[in-house]
Amino acid sequence: xxxxxxxxxxxxxxxxxxxPKAGTRWFLPAIAVxxxxxxxxxxxxxxxxxxxxxxxxxxxxxxxxxxxxxxxxTIPASDKAPAGVVTQGNVTTSPGxxxxxxxxxxxxxxxxxxxxxxxxxxxxETTALxxxxxxxxxxxRPLDVYARSWSGARGxxxxxxxxxxxxxxxxxxxxxxxxxxxxxxxxxxxxNSLIRWMQTARQNGHELLMQxxxxxxxxxxxxxxxxxxxxxxxxxxxxxxxxxxxxxxTNYTGIINYxxxxxxxxAKAMTPVMQDIAKxxxxxxxxxxxxxxxxxxxxxxxGTPFAAADVLIDGTQDRGSILKKLDELERIAxxxxxxxxxxxxxxxxxxxxxxxxxxxxxRGIEIVPVSALVRDPEKG
Length: 380
Prior knowledge:
Elements: H1 27-49, E1 73-76, E2 86-88, E3 91-93, E4 100-103, E5 124-127, E6 130-133, H2 142-145, E7 157-165, H3 169-178, E8 184-187, H4 194-203, E9 208-214, H5 235-246, E10 254-259, H6 261-264, H7 267-279, E11 283-286, H8 295-302, E12 306-308, E13 311-312, H9 319-336, E14 338-344, H10 347-362, E15 366-367
Parallel strand pairs: 1-4, 7-8, 7-14, 7-15, 8-9, 9-10, 10-11, 11-12, 13-14
Antiparallel strand pairs: 2-3, 3-4, 5-6
Helix pairs in contact: 3-10, 5-7, 7-8, 9-10
């Protein structure tokens, strides 16, 4: 018989000439038999019972594959984008991630709340007077993209617009921090730090308007501010001053007049303004301060989305008076379905509006953005 079985494992050298002692001749074969039997028993046990938590298989370096980039994902326009995204037009990007192409009705593609403070580049025209709003190449309007969403219900609805944002740092901060997000805010072009305040207001959920100074009857004794649009100015100068106001901020849905009883009563002066507002996909809100205003008629002629305020709530800066005006606004809304009130960012106004709107909600009144109440030719 070949005696190689007695050779130690892994040793190929010749056996030494000296013979092993007699006591070891049976010991080495026994060890080998026991080792083979133990291995067989272990294999049998593991095949019948297995491991509860087997160690993960280690992938060899040469087998590792690079995961290809995920394909572009198509999602409904109403879906929310993940945190960290930046939306521009109908393309949403995230740091290190794929592009997300948003499809759907352009008129309903409102901005994602996570990125509401970031201007949509497709809706901007870069000019020497600033970044001006325009209708996007896909037909989306600033009015639609920057509008705040609402329920769409047909109950009594009230829009409240508080203007003068930016004129007082303290007043602006109080208004943004105190007023419910449903209240629309209007910025004054002569204000300070407007871009910063615009971003804060948008992040807090507010819809925005841009105030434009228009000529009153007793101008210049009563002066709305720099770059006032005047009746006697050529149309080119009028549009130049309009664009100076427009370029002060971004992410707003439309224009509201500041003063302007004489200007809004002059159809010749108002027409190019309404044409430009319509061309840029914005709304026009008449503050309701002048019974002579031709804004409604001209807006209808030019296809400009339009609304007019029903009540100035803080003509008298007294809390009791303001609350009475707000109650009047509620009566109008219950009678005809909708109502719009305007005011300024005075401390007393902000506090009264904040308290009243929270109570009005419990009475079934819905506070909506002003964009929800415009007469819009595109929507019939």
